[in-house]
From TrEMBL:
InterPro entries referenced in this protein's UniProt entry, alphabetically: Nucleotide-bd_a/b_plait_sf (IPR012677), RBD_domain_sf (IPR035979), RRM_dom (IPR000504), SLIRP/GR-RBP-like (IPR052462)
Organism field: Pedobacter hartonius
Xref: Gene3D superfamilies: 3.30.70.330
Chain residue ranges for the region called Disordered: 76-104
The protein, known as: RNA recognition motif. (A.k.a. RRM, RBD, or RNP domain)
Keywords: RNA-binding
């Protein structure tokens, strides 16, 4: 199960957060999202736990809790619409070619 975490203190690192979620079970992967230019945490991230029951327990016990002075939100990650591979029409400029009237 993939878990979304928001409200993370900016100083929290991936090793520390992996240890925290590791208290609930195996952590397959963890990623704190960082600003491309500064490299600083953006205050949210994702954890993947292979055992759903352990992930649900982590969500239940951590959601709304205090983490180093910040109230964090922890929930099951939802897939973004249009992210399933293939060309789902995402991105880029779209032009309405149905309206072909021209004015001169």
């Amino acid at each position: 199960m993939k878990i979304f975490i928001t409200g993370l203190p900016l100083e929290v690192g991936e090793d520390e957060l992996t240890a925290v979620f590791g208290d609930f079970g195996q952590v397959k992967s963890l990623r704190i999202i960082k600003d491309r230019e500064t490299g600083q945490s953006r205050g949210f991230g994702f954890v993947e736990m292979p055992v759903d029951e352990e992930a649900k327990e982590a969500i239940k016990r951590m959601n709304g809790g205090d983490y180093n002075g910040n109230r964090i939100k922890v929930a099951e990650a939802q897939e973004k619409p249009g992210t399933g591979g293939g060309n789902a029409g995402g991105g880029g400029f779209k032009r309405n070619n149905n309206n072909r009237e021209r004015s001169y």
